[in-house]
Uroporphyrinogen-III synthase
Amino acid sequence: MKIKKVLVSQPKPASEKSPYFDIAEKYGVNIEFRPFIKVEGLTSKEFRQQKISIPEYTAVIFTARTAIDHFFRLCEELRVNIPDTMKYFCVTESVALYLQKYIVYRKRKIFFGNSGKIDDLVPALVKHSGEKFIFPVSDVHTDTGILDNNKINYTKAVMYRTVSNDFAPDEKFDYDMLVFFSPSGINSLLKNFPDFEQKEIKIGCFGPTTAKAIRDAGLRLDVEAPRPEAPSMTAALELYLKEVNKSSKK
């Protein structure tokens, strides 16, 4: 079956230079962007139920810009004054630079890794083991066993949650292919369409946990990334379209 319409469950790329647009033109497909999930912040009342006092902490661990936004939002709502002595540990430099939206960027108090994984931050965290870390996270987050193994003094603080971005009753769902990036996206699909039957619809995904969620849901996985010949979702999508849409290639 020729693929004519693809739904990518992410926000539309801000740049026109995104590989998705090149793929759409090259293979004559309509690629639409529509997140299946969205992030919403906990209210200050909900956060207080965790009995976490932000002023007690001397350092923060950030794994995403979303975490930064909700950390400073809650601090403002709770009227918490962040001292200049607070240290910030971020998984990448781009996440660290995002702090400029809220604070004066001083290298002596901001540390970051290169890989995007929290493992890469461990040496810096161990070096500053005297700090008391607060770790803003979503209600669904990855295991932090490596912090426990290295005896980091930290507290996870749930500050935002991932929820289903529901489809409107009159919203069309006529896609030949669906592309997912998280297990939450699969949960949202089944929540929005409890009687969903895959039939000829192709499903692609990025990451092993998403692949597992697709199979656990009894669905067929047709395109998977990353893999050696396709390190990104766009690379995997192009390889697949090249095979099934040969006649539409320009």
